[in-house]
């Protein structure tokens, strides 16, 4: 039987319509509670991989054409986001979509939809844990989310995902467009979430940040795994230094 809380992606092929093959036979493993970073140029297939795992490929044209995805004993191949969330796999979407007209608190509450029913006390404890990670959200809990800064919205999107108490958190470009100080805050939170035992699969354009956070990294190129290994080792390879870390 598959070990619990392990993400096991095997030979995954995903296409958009008939002509665009975004992933060709990609295999990837996230052991329980580990941080794995996905690197690669624009269009390499990173978001597609996350979306296939979380069940959020665009319904009109995205489809898994081959291979398999499992989280522990649960097969997620071709399943919907509800199935992924129920299994403990939750994605923070790219572009930090929050419900602008709802308050911070209401956004967090929405993060529990589709998860196992919990008592009010448990729900409150989970919300307090999120507020503990992001004190600024506690200060603004009654404000409309649309009034938050970009960084605060990213925190809220992460907090909302954490309300589902994921066993694996999928992060798509968490640092995109954020000021360095906010990026630090987000990175600390990722570490804290990891310390609390949650696995993380993170897509990040900021390769230096991703390699610093991750235990293991995987470089995608044109929908295939080009390199992979312990983050420390990868960050010393010539290819990664030149192409992703901007060194000579
Ligand atoms: P980026 O950082 O630019 O988001 P990425 O590595 O996440 O890059 P994907 O977004 O997964 O890459 O895209 C992989 C390929 O699939 C690209 O060629 C892209 O143009 C194509 N693609 C992505 N989404 C769709 C879609 N909804 N319909 C058609 N093609 C798509």
Automatic annotation (TrEMBL):
One of the record's GO molecular function terms: ATP binding
PROSITE patterns: ABC_TRANSPORTER_1 (PS00211), ABC_TRANSPORTER_2 (PS50893)
Gene3D superfamilies in alphabetical order: P-loop containing nucleotide triphosphate hydrolases
InterPro entries the UniProt entry points to: AAA+_ATPase, ABC_transporter-like_ATP-bd, ABC_transporter-like_CS, BCAA_Transport_ATP-bd_LivF, P-loop_NTPase
Listed CDD domains: ABC_TM1139_LivF_branched
Pfam family, one: ABC_tran
Domain of life: Bacteria
ABC transporter domain mapped to chain residues: 7-247
Lipid metabolism is among the record's keywords: no
Record keywords: Amino-acid transport, ATP-binding, Nucleotide-binding, Transport
Family indicated by similarity: Belongs to the ABC transporter superfamily.
Protein name: ABC transporter ATP-binding protein
Organism annotation: Kitasatospora phosalacinea
